[in-house]
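Worked example

This section walks through a single chain of length 299. The input is the sequence exactly as stored; nothing has been trimmed or padded.
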Amino acid sequence: MKLFGLLLVALFLISTPFNDSAYSQVVNDQSTKGLALSPLREEIAITPGTTQKKTLSLTNSSDQPMNIQLSAEVFSVVNHEYRYSFDEDDAVARWVRFGETELQLQPQERRSIAYEVAVPIGTEPGGAYISIFATNDTDQEPSAITLRQRIGLLLYITVEGEVTRSGSLLSLTAPWIVGSEAQWSATLQNTGSAHFRSRHEVVVHDVFGGEVARATGEALVLPGTVRRVTEPLPVLAWPGIYRLDYSIGLGDQPAYTDSRLIVVAPLWIWLLSAIVVLGIILRATLRSTQTSQKRNNKG
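Given that input, the structure is written out below as tokens.
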């Protein structure tokens, strides 16, 4: 009975959730003031030899006037994690034309800025990628240090024509056993001439085939690049064996699909198993000791 009671107490301690609210810290960043731009991304499909008129919005949420400079630079990515690189000397950046490149925003002022995207005649079909930057330089007295705030709008331009979006999956990595939270990752390649959005989905089924969880997302893949996409797996509360069905979009190509098994074994399962095993060993040891004592008494 004592051993059974100890096992019940241990199970209670394991199953009781830990409340760490006393150690958490809430950070409120809503008071941050400065220059804001919207939208942050824009998709444009345009025919060579034509011009499209667009607008963006700038907001000065500070209590001081701002002198803003507008510029355009071509952007690209430099590795699988998609870190951006910018080039202001690329001729494609001149596709963007502003009505004004310098302006002043008064405190709390919001203003719409007109700009044009003009693609020259004879431009090859495919993707072109330009960032519009709004820059604010502020002198901080008395140190005379200049602080620069630079925010950008990314233009994903598709020059229309015979455009290809040829995606392929280079690798898919997923764990086969998890304790709680886990991630899966895929490496995607785009050998086409324009970007595409890879829409992915993970559907979790139990051993009876019923759906218990689903997670979706998307990742933009630029032409001529390889991108690593990492996403969290759906969190499963109950231990067991599950089937995960993956579907990953590949542009113009059929989506990649795969099914894999996963074992969910939270930490409390391992602790409970250890306690049960320990209880069995202790019980066996106790019986062996009692048996030896009885034999000695008879002797």
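What to look for: Residues 35-159 form a domain with the Immunoglobulin-like fold (CATH 2.60.40.10).
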